[in-house]
Design brief:
It is built from nine helices and 15 strands. Helix 1 (18-29) crosses helix 5 (132-141) and helix 2 (51-61) packs across helix 8 (280-296). The protein has helices spanning 18-29, 51-61, 76-82, 87-96, 132-141, 161-168, 207-214, 280-296, 313-324; strands at residues 12-15, 34-36, 43-47, 70-72, 101-106, 123-127, 145-146, 174-177, 188-191, 198-201, 219-220, 243-248, 255-259, 271-273, 301-305. It folds into two domains: 12-220, DHBP synthase; 243-324, 3-Layer(aba) Sandwich (Rossmann fold). The strands form two sheets. Strands 1-8-2-3-7-4-6-5-9-10-11 form an eleven-stranded mixed sheet, with helices on both faces. Strands 12-15-13-14 form a four-stranded parallel sheet, covered by helices on one side. Helix 7 links the parallel strand 10 and strand 11. It binds adenosine monophosphate and magnesium ion (MG). Magnesium ion is lined by residues 148-149, 157.
Length: 327
Protein backbone atom coordinates (compact mmCIF):
# COMPACT_ATOMS: atom_id res chain seq x y z
CA UNK A 1 0.00 0.00 0.00
CA UNK A 2 1.44 3.32 -1.03
CA UNK A 3 -0.39 6.41 0.21
CA UNK A 4 2.38 8.92 -0.28
CA UNK A 5 1.62 11.50 -2.93
CA UNK A 6 5.29 11.80 -3.65
CA UNK A 7 6.84 8.41 -2.97
CA UNK A 8 10.41 9.04 -4.08
CA UNK A 9 11.30 7.35 -7.31
CA UNK A 10 14.11 7.57 -9.80
CA UNK A 11 13.13 9.90 -12.64
CA UNK A 12 14.80 8.86 -15.88
CA UNK A 13 15.80 11.47 -18.43
CA UNK A 14 14.98 9.95 -21.82
CA UNK A 15 16.31 11.21 -25.14
CA UNK A 16 13.65 11.90 -27.77
CA UNK A 17 14.97 9.20 -30.11
CA UNK A 18 13.42 5.88 -31.09
CA UNK A 19 14.63 4.18 -27.92
CA UNK A 20 13.43 6.94 -25.59
CA UNK A 21 10.06 7.19 -27.31
CA UNK A 22 9.53 3.43 -27.08
CA UNK A 23 10.45 3.45 -23.39
CA UNK A 24 8.12 6.39 -22.67
CA UNK A 25 5.24 4.58 -24.38
CA UNK A 26 6.01 1.38 -22.47
CA UNK A 27 6.03 3.26 -19.13
CA UNK A 28 2.66 4.83 -20.00
CA UNK A 29 1.17 1.48 -20.96
CA UNK A 30 2.31 0.14 -17.58
CA UNK A 31 0.53 2.93 -15.68
CA UNK A 32 3.58 5.16 -15.20
CA UNK A 33 3.98 8.94 -15.30
CA UNK A 34 6.06 10.59 -18.02
CA UNK A 35 6.61 14.28 -18.73
CA UNK A 36 6.62 14.71 -22.48
CA UNK A 37 6.92 17.57 -24.93
CA UNK A 38 3.98 18.94 -26.88
CA UNK A 39 3.98 22.07 -29.03
CA UNK A 40 2.31 24.02 -26.22
CA UNK A 41 3.95 23.06 -22.90
CA UNK A 42 5.43 19.88 -21.40
CA UNK A 43 2.60 17.59 -20.34
CA UNK A 44 2.55 15.21 -17.39
CA UNK A 45 1.28 12.14 -19.19
CA UNK A 46 -0.52 9.04 -17.93
CA UNK A 47 -2.83 6.39 -19.38
CA UNK A 48 -6.20 8.20 -19.48
CA UNK A 49 -8.07 4.90 -19.42
CA UNK A 50 -6.62 3.96 -16.00
CA UNK A 51 -8.11 5.69 -12.96
CA UNK A 52 -5.09 4.85 -10.82
CA UNK A 53 -2.66 6.17 -13.44
CA UNK A 54 -4.68 9.41 -13.62
CA UNK A 55 -4.75 9.62 -9.81
CA UNK A 56 -0.95 9.52 -10.02
CA UNK A 57 -1.01 12.77 -12.03
CA UNK A 58 -2.93 14.50 -9.23
CA UNK A 59 -0.60 13.07 -6.59
CA UNK A 60 2.56 14.15 -8.42
CA UNK A 61 1.21 17.64 -9.14
CA UNK A 62 -0.33 17.99 -5.66
CA UNK A 63 -3.43 19.38 -7.32
CA UNK A 64 -5.97 20.19 -4.60
CA UNK A 65 -9.01 19.53 -6.81
CA UNK A 66 -10.08 17.22 -9.62
CA UNK A 67 -10.69 18.97 -12.94
CA UNK A 68 -11.36 17.19 -16.18
CA UNK A 69 -8.12 16.54 -18.05
CA UNK A 70 -7.36 16.67 -21.75
CA UNK A 71 -6.90 13.29 -23.44
CA UNK A 72 -4.35 13.28 -26.24
CA UNK A 73 -4.66 11.13 -29.36
CA UNK A 74 -2.41 10.60 -32.39
CA UNK A 75 -5.11 11.39 -34.99
CA UNK A 76 -8.72 12.38 -35.64
CA UNK A 77 -9.80 8.79 -36.30
CA UNK A 78 -8.79 7.66 -32.80
CA UNK A 79 -10.30 10.83 -31.29
CA UNK A 80 -13.62 10.02 -32.95
CA UNK A 81 -13.71 6.68 -31.16
CA UNK A 82 -13.70 8.58 -27.84
CA UNK A 83 -16.07 11.46 -28.55
CA UNK A 84 -19.10 12.41 -30.66
CA UNK A 85 -18.20 15.14 -33.15
CA UNK A 86 -20.93 17.42 -34.50
CA UNK A 87 -20.37 19.45 -37.70
CA UNK A 88 -18.60 22.27 -35.83
CA UNK A 89 -16.30 19.92 -33.93
CA UNK A 90 -15.43 18.09 -37.12
CA UNK A 91 -14.67 21.31 -39.01
CA UNK A 92 -12.48 22.57 -36.15
CA UNK A 93 -10.62 19.27 -35.88
CA UNK A 94 -10.02 19.14 -39.63
CA UNK A 95 -8.71 22.71 -39.66
CA UNK A 96 -6.62 22.83 -36.49
CA UNK A 97 -5.47 19.28 -35.76
CA UNK A 98 -2.78 18.44 -35.18
CA UNK A 99 -2.37 21.64 -33.15
CA UNK A 100 -3.05 23.61 -29.95
CA UNK A 101 -6.86 23.22 -29.93
CA UNK A 102 -8.78 21.09 -27.42
CA UNK A 103 -12.35 20.08 -28.22
CA UNK A 104 -14.82 19.20 -25.46
CA UNK A 105 -17.46 16.90 -26.95
CA UNK A 106 -19.96 14.32 -25.62
CA UNK A 107 -18.21 11.08 -24.69
CA UNK A 108 -18.98 8.32 -27.17
CA UNK A 109 -20.70 5.12 -25.98
CA UNK A 110 -17.37 3.32 -26.45
CA UNK A 111 -15.29 6.02 -24.72
CA UNK A 112 -12.46 4.43 -22.73
CA UNK A 113 -11.29 7.62 -20.93
CA UNK A 114 -11.65 6.97 -17.19
CA UNK A 115 -14.23 8.75 -15.04
CA UNK A 116 -11.45 10.39 -13.06
CA UNK A 117 -9.91 11.90 -16.21
CA UNK A 118 -13.39 13.20 -17.13
CA UNK A 119 -14.08 14.31 -13.52
CA UNK A 120 -17.30 12.32 -13.70
CA UNK A 121 -18.68 14.30 -16.66
CA UNK A 122 -20.48 12.86 -19.69
CA UNK A 123 -18.15 14.91 -21.89
CA UNK A 124 -14.54 14.37 -22.88
CA UNK A 125 -11.77 16.83 -23.80
CA UNK A 126 -9.70 15.69 -26.79
CA UNK A 127 -6.62 17.01 -28.57
CA UNK A 128 -4.28 15.85 -31.31
CA UNK A 129 -0.95 17.59 -30.63
CA UNK A 130 1.36 18.65 -33.46
CA UNK A 131 4.68 17.86 -31.80
CA UNK A 132 6.34 14.94 -33.66
CA UNK A 133 7.68 13.39 -30.45
CA UNK A 134 4.28 13.60 -28.75
CA UNK A 135 2.72 12.08 -31.84
CA UNK A 136 5.19 9.18 -31.83
CA UNK A 137 4.58 8.43 -28.14
CA UNK A 138 0.79 8.57 -28.59
CA UNK A 139 0.89 6.28 -31.60
CA UNK A 140 3.05 3.78 -29.71
CA UNK A 141 0.97 3.99 -26.51
CA UNK A 142 -2.17 3.11 -28.49
CA UNK A 143 -4.61 4.64 -26.02
CA UNK A 144 -5.77 8.11 -24.94
CA UNK A 145 -3.13 9.84 -22.80
CA UNK A 146 -4.14 12.43 -20.20
CA UNK A 147 -1.58 15.21 -19.87
CA UNK A 148 -2.05 18.46 -17.93
CA UNK A 149 0.97 20.74 -17.72
CA UNK A 150 4.05 19.13 -16.18
CA UNK A 151 4.41 21.35 -13.14
CA UNK A 152 3.39 21.20 -9.53
CA UNK A 153 0.11 22.90 -8.73
CA UNK A 154 0.46 26.67 -8.42
CA UNK A 155 3.73 26.84 -10.35
CA UNK A 156 4.05 27.95 -13.93
CA UNK A 157 3.73 25.48 -16.78
CA UNK A 158 6.92 23.68 -17.74
CA UNK A 159 8.18 24.61 -21.21
CA UNK A 160 11.39 22.58 -21.08
CA UNK A 161 12.56 19.20 -19.82
CA UNK A 162 14.69 21.04 -17.22
CA UNK A 163 11.59 22.83 -15.87
CA UNK A 164 9.67 19.57 -15.66
CA UNK A 165 12.55 17.78 -13.97
CA UNK A 166 13.12 20.59 -11.47
CA UNK A 167 9.45 20.54 -10.48
CA UNK A 168 8.59 16.85 -10.67
CA UNK A 169 11.92 15.02 -10.43
CA UNK A 170 11.66 12.16 -7.91
CA UNK A 171 7.85 12.02 -8.31
CA UNK A 172 7.48 10.71 -11.84
CA UNK A 173 9.03 7.88 -13.86
CA UNK A 174 10.62 9.79 -16.71
CA UNK A 175 11.04 13.04 -18.61
CA UNK A 176 11.29 12.78 -22.38
CA UNK A 177 13.61 15.60 -23.46
CA UNK A 178 12.96 17.21 -26.84
CA UNK A 179 14.19 20.70 -25.97
CA UNK A 180 12.06 23.77 -25.24
CA UNK A 181 8.46 23.89 -26.50
CA UNK A 182 7.42 26.23 -29.32
CA UNK A 183 4.08 27.79 -28.37
CA UNK A 184 4.55 28.02 -24.60
CA UNK A 185 0.88 28.79 -23.95
CA UNK A 186 -1.71 26.09 -23.38
CA UNK A 187 -4.23 24.90 -25.93
CA UNK A 188 -7.40 26.83 -26.72
CA UNK A 189 -10.34 24.88 -25.24
CA UNK A 190 -13.65 24.95 -27.17
CA UNK A 191 -16.75 22.94 -26.29
CA UNK A 192 -19.05 21.67 -29.04
CA UNK A 193 -21.99 20.28 -27.09
CA UNK A 194 -25.27 21.87 -28.16
CA UNK A 195 -24.61 23.39 -31.56
CA UNK A 196 -23.23 26.57 -29.98
CA UNK A 197 -19.43 26.28 -29.70
CA UNK A 198 -18.09 27.94 -26.55
CA UNK A 199 -14.66 29.27 -25.74
CA UNK A 200 -13.73 27.72 -22.38
CA UNK A 201 -10.11 28.84 -22.35
CA UNK A 202 -8.12 31.09 -24.70
CA UNK A 203 -4.86 29.54 -25.88
CA UNK A 204 -2.62 28.74 -28.79
CA UNK A 205 -5.27 28.99 -31.56
CA UNK A 206 -6.71 32.54 -31.73
CA UNK A 207 -10.45 33.01 -31.32
CA UNK A 208 -10.75 34.78 -34.68
CA UNK A 209 -9.31 31.75 -36.50
CA UNK A 210 -11.89 29.50 -34.84
CA UNK A 211 -14.76 31.88 -35.62
CA UNK A 212 -13.62 32.02 -39.24
CA UNK A 213 -13.98 28.23 -39.52
CA UNK A 214 -17.37 27.92 -37.79
CA UNK A 215 -18.69 31.06 -39.49
CA UNK A 216 -20.11 32.61 -36.31
CA UNK A 217 -18.93 34.23 -33.07
CA UNK A 218 -17.88 31.91 -30.27
CA UNK A 219 -19.96 32.01 -27.11
CA UNK A 220 -17.63 33.03 -24.30
CA UNK A 221 -18.18 30.80 -21.27
CA UNK A 222 -18.70 32.52 -17.95
CA UNK A 223 -18.63 36.27 -17.49
CA UNK A 224 -17.58 37.81 -20.81
CA UNK A 225 -15.52 40.45 -19.00
CA UNK A 226 -13.43 37.93 -17.11
CA UNK A 227 -11.39 35.59 -19.28
CA UNK A 228 -10.14 32.97 -18.80
CA UNK A 229 -12.69 31.32 -16.55
CA UNK A 230 -11.35 28.86 -14.04
CA UNK A 231 -12.39 25.23 -14.47
CA UNK A 232 -14.04 25.36 -11.04
CA UNK A 233 -16.58 27.82 -12.39
CA UNK A 234 -17.89 25.40 -15.00
CA UNK A 235 -21.57 24.74 -14.35
CA UNK A 236 -21.05 21.27 -15.76
CA UNK A 237 -19.36 19.80 -12.69
CA UNK A 238 -20.62 16.35 -11.84
CA UNK A 239 -22.94 16.19 -8.84
CA UNK A 240 -25.03 13.21 -7.70
CA UNK A 241 -28.82 13.58 -7.47
CA UNK A 242 -28.82 12.22 -3.90
CA UNK A 243 -27.93 14.38 -0.92
CA UNK A 244 -24.39 13.71 0.30
CA UNK A 245 -23.57 13.51 4.03
CA UNK A 246 -19.87 13.83 4.85
CA UNK A 247 -17.65 12.57 7.70
CA UNK A 248 -20.20 9.90 8.58
CA UNK A 249 -19.54 7.10 11.07
CA UNK A 250 -22.13 4.72 9.64
CA UNK A 251 -25.13 4.82 7.27
CA UNK A 252 -28.56 5.70 8.66
CA UNK A 253 -31.67 3.85 7.45
CA UNK A 254 -32.30 4.56 3.76
CA UNK A 255 -28.80 5.89 3.18
CA UNK A 256 -26.21 4.40 0.87
CA UNK A 257 -22.66 4.10 2.23
CA UNK A 258 -19.42 5.19 0.62
CA UNK A 259 -16.67 3.83 2.82
CA UNK A 260 -12.93 4.31 3.08
CA UNK A 261 -10.53 1.97 4.88
CA UNK A 262 -11.62 -0.91 7.10
CA UNK A 263 -14.86 0.54 8.50
CA UNK A 264 -17.03 -2.50 9.20
CA UNK A 265 -19.92 -1.32 6.99
CA UNK A 266 -19.14 -3.58 4.04
CA UNK A 267 -22.18 -5.79 4.68
CA UNK A 268 -24.56 -2.83 4.30
CA UNK A 269 -26.80 -3.60 1.27
CA UNK A 270 -25.92 -0.32 -0.48
CA UNK A 271 -22.23 -0.01 0.35
CA UNK A 272 -19.13 0.57 -1.73
CA UNK A 273 -15.66 1.11 -0.32
CA UNK A 274 -13.35 3.61 -2.08
CA UNK A 275 -10.36 1.68 -0.76
CA UNK A 276 -10.69 -1.02 1.91
CA UNK A 277 -6.93 -0.73 2.59
CA UNK A 278 -7.07 3.06 2.94
CA UNK A 279 -5.06 3.85 -0.20
CA UNK A 280 -5.91 7.40 -1.34
CA UNK A 281 -4.80 6.80 -4.91
CA UNK A 282 -7.14 3.82 -5.23
CA UNK A 283 -9.87 5.90 -3.60
CA UNK A 284 -9.41 8.72 -6.13
CA UNK A 285 -9.66 6.28 -9.02
CA UNK A 286 -13.03 4.97 -7.72
CA UNK A 287 -14.54 8.27 -6.56
CA UNK A 288 -16.75 9.29 -9.51
CA UNK A 289 -17.73 5.78 -10.56
CA UNK A 290 -18.79 4.76 -7.05
CA UNK A 291 -20.75 7.98 -6.43
CA UNK A 292 -22.59 7.35 -9.67
CA UNK A 293 -23.30 3.71 -8.84
CA UNK A 294 -24.67 4.53 -5.39
CA UNK A 295 -26.68 7.43 -6.81
CA UNK A 296 -28.49 5.15 -9.29
CA UNK A 297 -29.76 3.07 -6.34
CA UNK A 298 -31.90 6.06 -5.35
CA UNK A 299 -30.93 6.30 -1.66
CA UNK A 300 -32.27 9.04 0.65
CA UNK A 301 -28.65 10.20 0.89
CA UNK A 302 -25.11 8.97 0.33
CA UNK A 303 -23.25 8.87 3.63
CA UNK A 304 -19.48 9.15 3.16
CA UNK A 305 -16.80 8.04 5.59
CA UNK A 306 -14.20 10.55 6.72
CA UNK A 307 -11.31 10.83 4.24
CA UNK A 308 -7.97 12.06 5.60
CA UNK A 309 -7.15 15.60 4.44
CA UNK A 310 -3.67 14.77 3.19
CA UNK A 311 -2.14 14.08 -0.20
CA UNK A 312 -4.86 13.08 -2.68
CA UNK A 313 -7.37 13.29 0.19
CA UNK A 314 -7.46 17.04 -0.30
CA UNK A 315 -8.75 16.72 -3.87
CA UNK A 316 -11.14 13.92 -2.91
CA UNK A 317 -12.59 16.02 -0.07
CA UNK A 318 -12.83 19.08 -2.31
CA UNK A 319 -14.97 17.10 -4.73
CA UNK A 320 -17.07 15.54 -1.95
CA UNK A 321 -17.72 18.96 -0.38
CA UNK A 322 -18.94 20.27 -3.75
CA UNK A 323 -21.21 17.23 -4.06
CA UNK A 324 -22.53 17.86 -0.54
CA UNK A 325 -23.11 21.60 -1.00
CA UNK A 326 -26.80 22.64 -1.02
CA UNK A 327 -28.17 22.95 -4.55
P1 LIG B 1 -5.11 21.28 -18.51
O1 LIG B 1 -5.21 19.82 -18.85
O2 LIG B 1 -4.58 21.52 -17.13
O3 LIG B 1 -4.39 22.05 -19.57
O4 LIG B 1 -6.57 21.87 -18.46
C1 LIG B 1 -7.62 21.29 -19.12
C2 LIG B 1 -8.64 22.35 -19.44
O5 LIG B 1 -9.70 21.77 -20.21
C3 LIG B 1 -9.27 22.92 -18.20
O6 LIG B 1 -9.54 24.28 -18.39
C4 LIG B 1 -10.54 22.11 -18.09
O7 LIG B 1 -11.54 22.74 -17.34
C5 LIG B 1 -10.93 21.95 -19.55
N1 LIG B 1 -11.75 20.74 -19.74
C6 LIG B 1 -11.30 19.49 -19.86
N2 LIG B 1 -12.32 18.62 -19.97
C7 LIG B 1 -13.45 19.34 -19.93
C8 LIG B 1 -14.83 19.02 -19.98
N3 LIG B 1 -15.25 17.74 -20.13
N4 LIG B 1 -15.72 20.03 -19.88
C9 LIG B 1 -15.29 21.28 -19.76
N5 LIG B 1 -14.01 21.66 -19.68
C10 LIG B 1 -13.08 20.71 -19.77
MG1 LIG C 1 -1.17 24.08 -15.82
Amino acid sequence: MNQSPSAPRQTKLLAADAVGIAEAAELLRAGGLVALPTETVYGLAADATSGTAVAGIYAAKERPSFNPLISHLPDLASARRQGLFDANALALAQNFWPGPLTLVVPASPGCTVSELARAGLATVALRVPAHPVAHAVLAAAGRPIAAPSANRSGRISATSAEDALADLGGRIDAVLDAGPTEVGVESTVVSCLDGAPRLLRPGGVPREAIEHVIGRPLVIAGDAGHAPISPGMLASHYAPAARVRLDAEAPQPGEAWLGFGPDGNDDHPQALNLSPSGDLREAASHLFGYLRRLDTLGPSAIAVARIPEQGLGEAINDRLRRAAAPR
